[in-house]
Design goal:
The chain is mainly α. It has 3 domains: 100 residues, no CATH class; 80 residues, no CATH class; 112 residues, no CATH class. It is built from 15 helices and 6 strands. A two-stranded antiparallel ribbon has the order 1-2. Strands 3-4 form a two-stranded antiparallel ribbon. A two-stranded antiparallel sheet has the order 5-6. A hairpin with a 7-residue loop joins strand 5 and strand 6. About 6% of the residues have low confidence.
C-alpha cells in the first residue's frame, strides 16, 4: 500500500512537472526575428488579422501557443488599438501583456515638401490610423478650422514640417490639437517678434514663405527673394509671383505663365491683387519661414529666372534692368520651344 502511494505521488509530481514545463514552454514562446518589427491593431480590432501579422511579420514560433495563451488571459475580447513593438528577445507573454494594456510605441511622424491638403491628408494617413478622408474634411471645415484659430484657406500653416512622436491610433481631432500645440511652440516670442519687425503676422510669414519656397529652386536664394517680396509689400506693388498663379490655376507644372493665366479671377492671383493671398500655397518648410524672418535687406523689386535654366534668378532694382533679364529668358524659352 505504501509503495502504491509513493508510486501515485511520483506520477503526480511528474505530471505536475510536465504541466509546469509545458506551461513554461508556452510562456517562453518567442519570435524568429533579428530586429524589432511592429504589429498593428486598427479600429476593427480584427483578431485574425493580428494573427496573420504575428505569423508573417513577427515570425511567431508557435501561433497555436499564442492563441492558447491569449485565450487564457482573455485578450481576444479586450483588444486595444495601437502600434506594438515585437523585439527579438520578447516572448508571447510579454507581447500579450503589452497588447492588453495598450502599451504601444509611438510613430515618428514625418512630413515635408507638401503642397495641398490632398497631399497632406495622404501623407499623414499613410503613417497613422486616421483616415485620409476624415483629415481632409476637417481641414476643409470652417468650424473645425475656426476652433483652431485658422480658416480653411490658411489652416495648412498649422503644420510645421518636422518629426513628431505620435501614437499611431490618435484620432483626427486630437491630432489637430497636437499640431496646434506644436505650431504655438514653434512661434515662440523670438520668432513672433521678428515677424512683427518685418511688419507681418506669423500667418503672413507662413504665406510669404510658401511663395518664396515655390519660387526658388535653391534655398540660398530664400532670404534674397523674401527681401524682394517684402520690398514690394511695403511699396504697395503687387507681388506678381508666378507660383501663386499656378496655385490659382491648379497646375504647378506650368513652365510659362501666359496672359490667359494672368486673367484668372482668384484672390491667389497676385498679378491682379495686391498684398498676400488668403493663405499659404504650400506647407512652408522651417528653412523658408526662417528665411522670411531673417530676410536679406536688399533694394530689389524684380526677379527673373536665369536664361541658363540653372534654377537661379537675376535680380534687379529697376524695371529697365529687369526688362533686359526678362528678354534673355524669353529668348531662351523660345529657342527651346517651351510654350
Amino acid at each position: 500500500m505504501r509503495k502504491k502511494i509513493l508510486y501515485i505521488s511520483l506520477i503526480a509530481v511528474i505530471a505536475i512537472i510536465a504541466v509546469v514545463a509545458y506551461g513554461y514552454s508556452v510562456l517562453a514562446t518567442g519570435f524568429d526575428i533579428g530586429k524589432t518589427v511592429y504589429v498593428y491593431v486598427n479600429e476593427d480590432k480584427n483578431y485574425k488579422a493580428l494573427l496573420d501579422e504575428l505569423r508573417d511579420s513577427a515570425k511567431v514560433e508557435s501561433i497555436s501557443n499564442f492563441e492558447m495563451l491569449s485565450a487564457a488571459l482573455g485578450y481576444k475580447d479586450n483588444m486595444r488599438t495601437g502600434r506594438y513593438a515585437v523585439t527579438p528577445d520578447m516572448t508571447i507573454y510579454d507581447l500579450i501583456r503589452d497588447l492588453r494594456s495598450g502599451n504601444q510605441i509611438p510613430v515618428k511622424l514625418k512630413f515635408n515638401n507638401i503642397r495641398t491638403k490632398d497631399d497632406l491628408s495622404k501623407r499623414i494617413s499613410g503613417q497613422l490610423m486616421l483616415s485620409e478622408k476624415s483629415l481632409y474634411n476637417k481641414l476643409d471645415d470652417i468650424n473645425t478650422c475656426g476652433s483652431l484659430g485658422f480658416t480653411p484657406e490658411n489652416v495648412v500653416a498649422i503644420f510645421i514640417p518636422n518629426t513628431y512622436e505620435i501614437y499611431w491610433d490618435i484620432d483626427t481631432d486630437d491630432f489637430l490639437q497636437r499640431m496646434k500645440k506644436e505650431y504655438s511652440r514653434f512661434w515662440d516670442e523670438k520668432r513672433t517678434a521678428k515677424a512683427l519687425e518685418a511688419g507681418l503676422s506669423p500667418m503672413e510669414v507662413s504665406t510669404l514663405a510658401s511663395i518664396v519656397e515655390e519660387e526658388c529652386t535653391f534655398s540660398d536664394e530664400y532670404p534674397v527673394v523674401a527681401g524682394l517680396y517684402l520690398n514690394r509689400l511695403r511699396t504697395g506693388q503687387p507681388l506678381q509671383a508666378d507660383p501663386t498663379v499656378k496655385f490659382a490655376v491648379g497646375d504647378f507644372s506650368l513652365r510659362r505663365i501666359l496672359n490667359k493665366h494672368l486673367e484668372i479671377n482668384s484672390p491667389y492671383n497676385t498679378y491682379r491683387h495686391t498684398g498676400l493671398p488668403p493663405g499659404p500655397i504650400r506647407i512652408p518648410s522651417i528653412k523658408a519661414i526662417d528665411a522670411v524672418l531673417n530676410h536679406d535687406k536688399n533694394d530689389y523689386l524684380y526677379m527673373c529666372a536665369k536664361e541658363d535654366f540653372s534654377g537661379k534668378h537675376n535680380f534687379a532694382n529697376t524695371y529697365d534692368k529687369h526688362q533686359v533679364y526678362a528678354a534673355k529668358y524669353r529668348n531662351a524659352l523660345n529657342l527651346r520651344g517651351i510654350k
